[in-house]
TrEMBL record:
The protein's annotated pathway: Isoprenoid biosynthesis; isopentenyl diphosphate biosynthesis via DXP pathway; isopentenyl diphosphate from 1-deoxy-D-xylulose 5-phosphate: step 2/6
Catalyzed reactions: 2-C-methyl-D-erythritol 4-phosphate + CTP + H(+) = 4-CDP-2-C-methyl-D-erythritol + diphosphate
Site (Positions MEP for the nucleophilic attack): 156, 212
Annotated source species: Desulfosporosinus metallidurans
Site features described as Transition state stabilizer, chain residue numbers: 18, 25
CDD domains per UniProt: CDP-ME_synthetase
Its EC number(s): 2.7.7.60
Family membership noted in the UniProt record: Belongs to the IspD/TarI cytidylyltransferase family. IspD subfamily.
Protein's name in the database: 2-C-methyl-D-erythritol 4-phosphate cytidylyltransferase
GO molecular function ontology, one term from the record: 2-C-methyl-D-erythritol 4-phosphate cytidylyltransferase activity
Amino acid sequence: MRLAKLGIVIPAAGQGKRMGAGYNKQFLTLMGEPMLAHTVRLFEQSSYVSEIVVVGAEADVPIIVELVHHHKFDKVKICKGGVQRQDSVRAGVQALSSAIQRIVVHDGARPLLTLEDFHRFLDETEKFKAAIMAIPVKDTIKQVHETGKVIATLTRERLRAVQTPQIFDRAILAEAHYQAVSAGYYGTDDASLLEWMGYPVQVIEGSQENIKVTTPEDLWLAERILAMREARSSTRGVGCTMEYETRSTR
């Protein structure tokens, strides 16, 4: 089970202009720590992960190096990204050792993925060469003309909001990036490169809490979710302590 060596590529080179912070949003503080530290720690803790590559903008590499050393992340290597996210992922794939057979791509700005959901994702994607995490769309989605007029109302039951992690056999992902570079094609995510080449991509149910932090409102929501998780964890801990104390006095 999960015998293939697993590598993680975390693209973290985007500057996040919609956040309006004036610097890379990956370094914004979330519950007292940089957002990127939350993202990396998850994979650092997973026994199934052999290597992690964090891909950063050239100017951010020294900051990422300091972050990795401060948090003692020993699975991490760092490489310089490209102009587009796709270029950064390709650089991250190339930076992984040749022993890595399966690759997970995960956004640096998705710090709320849980270890439980990640391991469930690995379990459910073992038999697929390419798979993504996604959630059902809640809102009615309309296709709109550039003039602002509605063209069509799409069937919501067949629509999914795509998240990361996304997992691929290395050979297939590397080939997709090679073909895309050769053709000058840029997709919106790595799965779209495989779709462009005609490879099937499996969808696995994601989590509503696995949000991408893009705006100040997202950062506020991420803080609330983490605080709620801490409160739940503390409550469970108190309950266990009380139960133990009750038993010990019998």
